[in-house]
Design a protein that fits this description.
With 124 residues, the protein is an alpha+beta fold. The protein folds into 2 domains: 1-27; 31-121. Helices cover 40% and strands 22% of the residues. It has 3 helices and 4 strands.
Length: 124
């Protein structure tokens, strides 16, 4: 086998592998339950929560629950956020719920309303 033949075959193999990956690795907009769509929902929720925090850089998220809705890019996100308060200490985990029509966070939403919403949309 010549060097040119081997190089051509290697290029064809690389092109085939790239095409397979592109067709299967990023099913971004089609499937609401895709990892890509779920990550976008989670990232969007974190940015929304950070936008109201006193120290957004200190935000630590946990217990994230992502429930995609049928339309790609739309869903419900629940979780906890801990961030620094005005005294420089961590405030402790606070629940939040984000839906297409609603944004509730513990400490800024009446607790009874937050717990009702949490029970309806965040519990499995």
């Amino acid at each position: 086998m010549s060097l040119a033949f081997c190089s051509r075959k290697l290029i064809q193999l690389a092109a085939t592998a790239s095409a397979l990956c592109l067709s299967g690795c990023n099913s971004s907009g089609d499937d609401p339950n895709s990892a890509y769509n779920r990550a976008l929902l989670e990232q969007g929720a974190q940015e929304k929560v950070k936008s109201i925090l006193r120290d957004p850089v200190s935000a630590e998220f946990s217990g994230m629950i992502v429930r995609p809705l049928p339309e790609p890019g739309v869903g419900i996100v629940c979780g906890y956020v801990n961030s620094r308060n005005g005294f420089g200490g961590m405030s402790g985990p606070k629940r939040f719920v984000i839906t297409p029509d609603l944004f509730q966070i513990e400490g800024q939403t009446p607790l009874a309303d937050l717990l009702r919403t949490w029970g309806m949309v965040c519990n499995p």
